[in-house]
Design a protein that fits this description.
single chain; 127 residues; alpha+beta; Nuclear Transport Factor 2, Chain: A; 6-stranded mixed beta sheet; 3 helices; 33% helix; disordered N terminus
């Protein structure tokens, strides 16, 4: 039980850190965070090389959507050649909280859903 609580605490900390840092990113790009390496890059919101086309090119398919005010959080899944499922989460732009980001390379669905729950908990008072 302690290990689970510790892991949830790490996810909550990471969610807060990344979301508050991303408030000042470029308007025309979304922040992309690699879950495994914790590296941050950007992808275009629209046009060639946008984040949706990138997800498709990497083999991600949408598997779930969670309502968040007038927007939604989207969960994606891919099957790699080594039969290892990877997950990605898209958090939309919200007027009350100027954030838009994409988490990639999340190794388990449980970690992805825990991150989604943490973000919803953080944003609940604002929506």
């Amino acid at each position: 039980m302690r290990k689970y609580v510790s892991r949830c605490g790490q996810i909550n900390y990471l969610a807060k850190k990344i979301f508050f840092e991303s408030m000042y990113d470029d308007f025309y790009a979304i922040r992309v965070i690699d879950w495994k390496t914790r590296e941050s890059t950007q992808l275009s919101r629209t046009g060639n090389g946008n984040w949706v086309k990138w997800l498709i090119s990497q083999g991600y398919d949408i598997i779930d959507a969670t309502a968040l005010g007038c927007a939604g959080i989207y969960l994606y899944k891919t099957d790699s050649l080594e039969n290892i499922d990877l997950y990605a989460i898209y958090f939309p732009y919200l007027a009350v909280f100027d954030i838009e980001c994409l988490f990639i390379n999340i190794p388990t669905e449980a970690q992805a859903r825990t991150l989604i729950a943490s973000v919803i908990e953080l944003l609940q008072p604002l929506i």
